[in-house]
C-alpha cells in the first residue's frame, strides 16, 4: 500500500490540468466615424477584444453541464446617446454572428453554446479574453455628433479548474467581477442629392433658346444647417458659364436662383442656404427632401456660335 500511494502522488500532478480566470478591465468598442445616411440604412459593426473576463489555463476537456460563465450587461441608457438626445440602438452578441444575441439585464451563459471552447479560453498558457460584438439597428435618423454609452458587464463564473488523470475534478474556480465598457460612434453630416441635367434643346439662334426652370433636391442630416454652391463649370469666362462644342466654340449661359436674376455661385452670398430652400426651408431633416428651384438661361447678348452640340459640367457642393 505504501508503494502504491507513493506512485499515485507522483502521477496526479503530472496528469492534471488547471485553469484560472479573473475580472480585468474591459476594452472600449468603437464603431468609428459613419455618415448619417449609412447609420440609418446599413448595419454597423464593432467589437471589444476584452469584455472584462480573462482566463489562463490548460484544461484538456470541454466545459461540462455543471460549469457556468455568466455575463450580465446593463446600462443607464438603451443605446448610444448623442449631443441632442438622439439614440442609436444596437444589439450585443456573444460571437461574430447573429446567432447569440445578448439581452440587457439577463444573464447570458457563455459556457452553454461552445463559444468559450471555440475561443480556447481555458486551454493554453497565454491569457485569453472574452470578446463582445455589437451591431447597430437600422432606421436611426439622428443628428451629427459623438454618440456614447457606458455598459456595465458583471461576470460570474463557476467551473472545474483542475482535472485529474481519470477525469476527476480536483477543484473549482469560482469568482465574479464587474467592469465597465465604453461604446462610441461618431455620426458625420451627409446629403443625398438629386440633380437633373439642364437641356436647352435646339435653336437656330441664341434668342431661340427657351429658359429652363427646374429644381434640385437634397436630403441632409437631421438638424444640419448647410449651404449649397454651384461652381462656374469648365469653361467660364467674364463671370459667365459657358458650354463648349467639340470644335472649340462656346455658348454662354448661366444658372440663377429660383426664378430671379441672381446668379447661383459657389462663394459667399452667391451660395444658397438650407433656410433659403423653396420647399421645406430650414435645417436638414434626415429623411425629407429640401428643394431648390433655379432657372437656366442662354445669354442673348452674344453672337450665335456655329452649329454643334455644346456641353458643360457644373459641380454642386454642400458645406456644413
TrEMBL record:
- Cite the InterPro entries for this sequence: Spore_coat_component (IPR053167), Spore_coat_U/FanG (IPR007893)
PANTHER family documented for this protein: MEMBRANE PROTEIN, PROTEIN U-RELATED
| Keywords linked to the UniProt accession | Signal
Domain Spore coat protein U/FanG: residue ranges: 17-153, 178-315
Coiled coil ranges:
none
Which organism is this entry from?
Answer: Pseudomonas promysalinigenes
Signal peptide extent: 1-19
Q: What is this protein called?
A: Spore coat U domain-containing protein
Amino acid at each position: 500500500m505504501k508503494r502504491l500511494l507513493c506512485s499515485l502522488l507522483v502521477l496526479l500532478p503530472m496528469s492534471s490540468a488547471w485553469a484560472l480566470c479573473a475580472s480585468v478591465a474591459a476594452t472600449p468598442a468603437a464603431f468609428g466615424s459613419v455618415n448619417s445616411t449609412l447609420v440609418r440604412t446599413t448595419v454597423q459593426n464593432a467589437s471589444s477584444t476584452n469584455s472584462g473576463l480573462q482566463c489562463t489555463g490548460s484544461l484538456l476537456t470541454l466545459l461540462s453541464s455543471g460549469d457556468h460563465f455568466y455575463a450580465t450587461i446593463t446600462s443607464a441608457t438603451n443605446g448610444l446617446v448623442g449631443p441632442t438626445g438622439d439614440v442609436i440602438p444596437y444589439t450585443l452578441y456573444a460571437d461574430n454572428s447573429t446567432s447569440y444575441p445578448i439581452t440587457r439585464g439577463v444573464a447570458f451563459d457563455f459556457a452553454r453554446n461552445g463559444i468559450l471552447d471555440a475561443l480556447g479560453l481555458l486551454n493554453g498558457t497565454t491569457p485569453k479574453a472574452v470578446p463582445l460584438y455589437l451591431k447597430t439597428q437600422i432606421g436611426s435618423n439622428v443628428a451629427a455628433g459623438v454618440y456614447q454609452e457606458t455598459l456595465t458587464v458583471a461576470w460570474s463564473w463557476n467551473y472545474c479548474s483542475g482535472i485529474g488523470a481519470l477525469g476527476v475534478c480536483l477543484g473549482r474556480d469560482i469568482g465574479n467581477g464587474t467592469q465597465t465598457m465604453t461604446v462610441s460612434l461618431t455620426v458625420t453630416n451627409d446629403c443625398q442629392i438629386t440633380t437633373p441635367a439642364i437641356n436647352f434643346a435646339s435653336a437656330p439662334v441664341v434668342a431661340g433658346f427657351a429658359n429652363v426652370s427646374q429644381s434640385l433636391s437634397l436630403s441632409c442630416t437631421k438638424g444640419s444647417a448647410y449651404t449649397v454652391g454651384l461652381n462656374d463649370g469648365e469653361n467660364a469666362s467674364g463671370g459667365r458659364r459657358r458650354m463648349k462644342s467639340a470644335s472649340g466654340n462656346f455658348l454662354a449661359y448661366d444658372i440663377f436662383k429660383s426664378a430671379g436674376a441672381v446668379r447661383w455661385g459657389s462663394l459667399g452670398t452667391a451660395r444658397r442656404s438650407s433656410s433659403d430652400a423653396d420647399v421645406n426651408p430650414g435645417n436638414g431633416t434626415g429623411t425629407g427632401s429640401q428643394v431648390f428651384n433655379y432657372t437656366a438661361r442662354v445669354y442673348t447678348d452674344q453672337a450665335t456660335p456655329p452649329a454643334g452640340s455644346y456641353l458643360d459640367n457644373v459641380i454642386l457642393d454642400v458645406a456644413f
